[in-house]
């Protein structure tokens, strides 16, 4: 019987000056994320929190605290009208673990315009319902909603993903057998009134009412002087109309009853799929990720800080070195990982050449497509770690039919039934973002970090392309470049729902523990094969057989790890690949070397830029040498084999 052999990867972080400097820069970005989260938790502030308490109710965040810890999604969604702003679009959504079962929580923020629906509120609710439907997770609605925020109704009422689509999602969840439990805590007007009705269980507190139209509208239309509770309180809907199931005295009791309902749902299948193996933490701390994500980094060091015991079974390691594919465990459960590798990597046709990582070439794209199909066939949730500049371009790429290979990968991901989880580590550029299961290809969730840059291309590159026929219009180029750079901000992407959540690097493991458990929680709704009969074993066996019959030109000793540019010892340092050569890190910095500089092994000679990725060119000789002549200017275009420096 085939066995899954997981091997150690990663090593202790050096925590040198570059590590510490990078950590400081990323920490400052993540502190901004903390500030945004804190502000959103305040809703409209203390005044509105006190109003809620005066009605004998808890605030939404207080209710959530009684249910459990929320793993939020959609936190940074921004919404509002001409006169007001709605933090988090006035609704809190996320994952929550209750009675050892993961659920989706959807809770109106009752401190923001009495929980009304703003522009983006319906979309955010629908997105949470979609995740629940994909994973078959119970849905809990904490309803305290005064209906549409009417001054902005044109942005919430119509359209394919307007408020009405929430009720269709209620129906689809019910049709799929997904438990839905609603607690109604206060206002529940119009659209808010429809949302609980299709739920399996509906609880109402004594402060709650559900109405098609509130008291003010009734008084105006029919001259009837009634309160909203008179019209649609628990005495009506629990005892007369049968639109609700249970009547409870207060918020605390309602939440306790919701917990009891969840305890009666199907238990989690997670322990079954762990096969008696305990969950383990990574051998290396996820906290170190803030220092490791340098301009050129080893993706395997990242994986080592996300997976159990830092163990990994790499597959297809002898081809497509620009991507890494393999199997690991997270929280004791098997996952597939597909990730972009950075640095300069072996060229498949010439062992003396390198080519930059972070770009998709034919070999890597074919490898990803094959791996995606295998994970789908074997029922293995697949995590995509994106740091991609896009597809390779140029005559050779077109002659190889890269468009066709890319289409094959997109097709594989589009029809995949196994859950896909996408993480944008840094760059998510061009069609590479699509091909690696970006949000348009319906992953269960897409997470961004504070470093993520989601766009077709960088601002400077786009500006140069747009103004290439008018090079004198420097000011307009600069304005365009700055606007594009601002559009690439991950907080802006999250605000307009182009990504589901921005998380800290150290939080990635926590999110993955939750998400992977969610993927395995329910039974009988998707294929999950025993690891003994995975098709991946067949691929590995064929790969090993081919390696014996047809050894690769640069052999199995090549690990495929990201490498710095290779500068061979000798009197002349030559370019290992095409690109732009820089003698200094920035215009304000001193040059790495100049005539007369004494070189020691490992010294940086310059930077080579390829598709906005910078690769250090290192001196790899063993003898101490002196720079006698510099043959290229700063910011010069170079070709593979061009002489750059003369040493003596």
What does this 3D model show about the protein?
The chain is of the alpha/beta class and 648 residues long. It folds into three domains: 42-267, Alpha-Beta Complex (2-enoyl-CoA Hydratase, Chain A, domain 1), CATH 3.90.226; 277-452 and 499-549, 2-enoyl-CoA Hydratase, Chain A, domain 1 (Alpha-Beta Complex), CATH 3.90.226.10; 565-647, Beta Barrel (OB fold (Dihydrolipoamide Acetyltransferase, E2P)), CATH 2.40.50.100. The chain is built from 22 helices and 31 strands. Helix 5 (164-175) links the parallel strand 7 (139-145) and strand 8. The radius of gyration is 28 Å and the shape is globular. The model is unreliable at 552-569 (pLDDT under 50).
Largest sheet: 9 strands, mixed
**Oligomerization:** single chain
Overall CATH architecture of the largest domain: Alpha-Beta Complex
Q: Specify the number of helices.
A: 22
CATH-defined fold name of the largest domain:
2-enoyl-CoA Hydratase, Chain A, domain 1
Number of domains: 3
Separation, N- and C-terminal Cα atoms: 60 Å
The averaged pLDDT comes out at 87
How does the overall form come out from the CA principal axes? globular
Low-confidence stretches: 552-569
**How does the helix and strand content classify structurally?**
alpha/beta
Which CATH class of the largest domain applies here?
Alpha Beta
């Amino acid at each position: 019987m085939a066995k899954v052999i997981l091997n150690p990867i990663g090593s202790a972080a050096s925590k040198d000056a570059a590590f510490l400097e990078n950590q400081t820069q990323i920490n400052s970005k993540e502190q901004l994320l903390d500030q945004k989260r804190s502000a959103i938790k305040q809703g409209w502030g203390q005044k509105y929190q006190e109003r809620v308490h005066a009605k004998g109710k808890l605030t939404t965040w207080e209710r959530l605290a009684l249910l459990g810890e929320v793993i939020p999604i959609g936190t940074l969604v921004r919404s509002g009208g001409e006169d007001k702003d709605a933090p988090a679009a006035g609704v809190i959504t996320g994952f929550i673990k209750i009675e050892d079962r993961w659920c989706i929580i959807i809770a109106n923020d009752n401190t923001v315009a009495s929980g009304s629906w703003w522009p983006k509120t319906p979309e955010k609710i629908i997105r949470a319902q979609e995740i629940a439907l994909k994973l078959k997770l119970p849905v809990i609605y904490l309803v305290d909603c005064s209906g549409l925020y009417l001054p902005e109704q044109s942005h919430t009422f119509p359209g394919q993903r307007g408020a009405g689509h929430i009720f269709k999602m209620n129906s689809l969840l019910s049709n799929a057998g997904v438990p839905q439990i609603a607690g109604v805590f206060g206002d529940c007007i119009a659209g808010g009134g429809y949302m609980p009705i299709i739920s399996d269980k509906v609880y109402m507190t004594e402060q709650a009412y559900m109405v098609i139209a509130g008291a003010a509208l009734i008084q105006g239309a029919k001259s009837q002087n009634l309160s909203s509770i008179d019209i649609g309180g628990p005495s009506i809907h629990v005892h007369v109309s049968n639109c609700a199931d249970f009547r409870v005295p207060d918020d605390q009791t309602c939440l306790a009853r919701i917990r009891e309902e969840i305890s009666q749902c199907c238990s989690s299948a997670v322990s079954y799929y762990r096969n008696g193996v305990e969950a383990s933490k990574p051998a290396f701390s996820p906290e170190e990720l803030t220092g490791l994500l340098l301009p050129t980094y080893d993706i395997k060091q990242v994986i080592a800080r996300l997976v159990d015991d830092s163990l990994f079974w790499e597959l297809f390691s002898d081809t497509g070195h620009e991507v890494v594919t393999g199997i690991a465990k997270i929280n004791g459960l098997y996952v597939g990982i597909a990730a972009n590798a950075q640095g300069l990597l072996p060229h498949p046709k010439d062992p003396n050449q390198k080519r930059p990582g972070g770009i998709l070439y034919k070999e890597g794209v074919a490898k990803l497509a094959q791996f995606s199909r295998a994970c789908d066939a074997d029922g293995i949730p697949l995590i995509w770690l994106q740091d991609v500049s896009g597809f390779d371009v140029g005559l050779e790429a077109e002659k190889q039919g890269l468009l066709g290979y890319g289409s094959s990968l997109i097709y594989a991901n589009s029809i995949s039934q196994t859950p896909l989880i996408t993480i944008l580590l840094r760059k998510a550029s061009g069609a590479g973002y699509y091909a690696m299961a970006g949000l348009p290809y319906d992953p269960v969730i897409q997470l961004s970090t504070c470093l993520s840059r989601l766009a077709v291309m960088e601002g400077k590159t786009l500006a140069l392309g747009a103004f290439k026929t008018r090079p004198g219009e420097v000011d307009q180029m600069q304005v365009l470049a700055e606007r594009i750079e601002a559009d690439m901000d991950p907080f802006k992407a999250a605000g307009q729902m182009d990504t589901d959540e921005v998380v800290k690097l150290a939080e990635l493991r926590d999110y993955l523990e939750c998400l992977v458990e969610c993927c395995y929680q329910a039974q009988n709704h998707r294929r999950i094969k025993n690891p003994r009969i995975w098709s991946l074993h067949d691929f590995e066996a064929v790969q090993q057989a081919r390696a014996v019959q047809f050894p690769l030109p640069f052999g199995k000793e090549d690990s495929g790890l990201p490498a710095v540019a290779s500068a061979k010892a000798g009197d002349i340092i030559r370019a290992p690949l095409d690109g732009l050569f820089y003698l200094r890190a920035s215009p304000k910095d001193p040059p790495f070397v100049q005539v007369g500089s004494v070189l020691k092994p490992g010294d940086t000679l310059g930077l080579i830029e390829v598709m906005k990725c910078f690769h250090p060119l290192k001196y790899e000789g063993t003898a101490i040498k002196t720079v006698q002549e510099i043959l290229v200017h700063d910011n010069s275009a170079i070709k593979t084999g061009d002489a750059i420096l003369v040493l003596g």
